[in-house]
Amino acid sequence: MEPVLGSATLANQAGMHARPAVKIAKAAKSFNAEISLRIDENTGWISAKSTNSLMKLKGRTGDVLHFRAQGEDAPKAISTLIGMVEDKFGED
Amino acid sequence: MKQERRLSASSASPGRASAELAVWRVCNVADQRRDAGEVGDELALFGKAADDACKQLEDLASRVSEDAAEILEFQIELLEEFREETCELLEQGLGCDVAWSRVLDREIASYQESGEAFLESRGSDLIDLKLRVLRGVFGVEEPGLPQGTDKPVVIVAPDLSPSEFLQLDREMVAGLALREGSPTSHVALLAKARGTPMVVGLSGETTLLEDGAQVLLDADNGLVIANPTSESLSTFGKETRALARKRFVAEQRVSEPAVTRDGEAVQIHANIDDVSLLCEIDADRFDGIGLVRTEFLFSDNHAPDEEEQFQIYSRLVEWAGGKPITIRTLDAGGDKPIKGISVPAEANPFLGLRGYRLSRTVPEMFGEQLRALARVAAKGNIKVMIPMVTEPDEMEEFRQLFADTVLELMSRDIECATPALGMMVEVPAAALCVCQFDADFCSIGSNDLVQYATAAARDNPQVSALANSAHPGLLNLIRIATHSADLVSMPISVCGDMASNEAGVHSLLKVGIRSLSVAPAQVSLVKEAVREWSSSE
To answer: Which helix (H) or strand (E) holds B453?
Structure first.
């Protein structure tokens, strides 16, 4: 199965801090698909299901998050996560 | 019969207590080690410790504000993630204390050394989490009061954080004796607001103090007597009863106005440092709130935004029911550093970037506060003052800043108003020419003015006796400030400890002050002190 790709710009004021990290990880864990993301195209992928890895991504406002998901529910997972980022995690 | 021990300390919140002693539990599980058992046993022990930690966190999260709950949820998520890795180490034969510490120590270091403020500040959550699980592994008590404490005790502790103090059941706290701490700390202010006797800098053989020992705490004079002789007990009891009678009489008419023997009314306002105490304080006793210290909304890891501040200030408005509320803008720096915004190291922090001087350098954070204040000014009788003003230009600049804030909010169609804008008088040079400032009102911050006028710090035991609020030079300074304010009909008041003790109240009335703001628990005695005073004295 081909992986599903998607990207969104981190636009909330605080960037990827604890609250958004918890939100993304929780949402990602609700899907069966393998979901990973990265900021820079030259860095490795990290699991979107790990709050700890998301924190260490050090995502700043304006960074583009690239998502990749593989599995039955991958399209739904990508659209959900992209939606959360675009909605600024309900912040601001 | 155990020997009586007298230990000296500095007064941080007045009052007296005679009770049993309780030693505050500070458990140091981080350094404990145990021998590892069979793999299966280690997995079971760790599983239980982790489950218990998770339950504790969920339980805590259900009892705190939404923001605090989100941080706890963050800890719960990380607990689950680090659990897997720890179990892998357990399978290799490591003990669960060693395995869990290894995983967490690595993560704590990577957060703390990340060079990113937001990750560094979360390091303390990881430390919390590490210790919570380790306590489960070693089966040790939560830090705090001994379990099963069921009557009021005098707590002996190294130091207490504001949150530790607020979480205490106030019925169980007869008094506090801290080995470290400062009389100007947030905890000291909270203790004053609640009327909990408290001393700091307790010195001597404190390690000999044991749970259950009889102890006498005289926080007015900075004295702790453990295992008192019957003679000490009886003297202490007599003094305490005399004071209690005086307070009882004062409490009978606490809600009546404070009028001097000459028939002059004196305004008595409350100092409010923490809105969480509002529910314990009766608004009828006060003519308003004379000082809200907003720096205590800002903890190490949290800076409340405009909306959160607006909500907090709105609670004050509700409490005051139309009476005036004077809110002081953030007074960080000096002895109250706030992570992320305070300047890291100055040779003389008290003479450096603090109060308004600091706020104007962090326009983003200050803007959040000014917008919240302008919004709440549309809802209640709000006055706003800035701390550490030295030059008249600073007051003008602040007026302009506030006007810009109001304009910005109006242009966005947000309800707001311009409150009365005033200043704190803490800098002696400003006290000498109050009339030259374009302020709608002013308030003398006696704690800082005393320190600056006597060039002696209150939290340095070597010189604190020199920081004497009865110094005739200081009283002259306040007299001049009062006259100067009168020249331009600028209302002037005094907040700070000087307004909260009898001798101080009489001195202030004598130099012309007719408005005071006091620690809530002291209001009845302060009003009595006013009633006893006449100008012919």
So the answer is: helix B446-454
Among A25, A26, A55, beta carbon nearest to B122: A55
Q: Which domains does chain A have, with CATH numbers?
A: 4-90 (3.30.1340.10)
Q: What CATH number has the domain bearing residue B234? A: 3.50.30.10
Element (H, E) at B306: helix B306-320
ipTM of this predicted complex?
0.91
Contact B119 A26 (CB under 8 A): no
Whether residue A21 lies within 8 A of chain B, CB to CB, comes out as: yes
Instruction: Give the single-character DSSP code of A3.
Output: P
CB contact under 8 A, A52 and B82: yes
Residues B129 and B156 in one domain: no
**Concatenated DSSP letters for B126-165?**
HHHHHHHHHHHHHTPPPSBSPTT--S-EEEEES---HHHH
Restricting to B residues 72-111, those with a Cβ less than 8 Å away from any Cβ of A are 73-74, 77-78, 81-82, 107, 110-111
- Displacement of CA B238 from its chain's centroid (Å): 32
**Chain B interface, mutation test: which of A17, A24, A26, A30, most B Cβ atoms within 10 Å?**
A17
Provide the domain limits for residue B387. 253-532
Same domain flag for B368 and B264: yes
Q: Is residue B12 part of a domain?
A: yes
Read off the pLDDT of each residue in B7-30 and give the average, rounded to a whole number: 89
Q: What is the pLDDT of residues B37-85, one digit of tens each?
A: 999 999 999 999 999 999 989 988 887 777 778 888 999 999 999 999 9
B308-351 pLDDT per residue, tens? 999 999 999 999 999 999 999 999 876 666 766 766 678 888 89
Chain A closest-CA separation from residue B86 CA (Å):
15
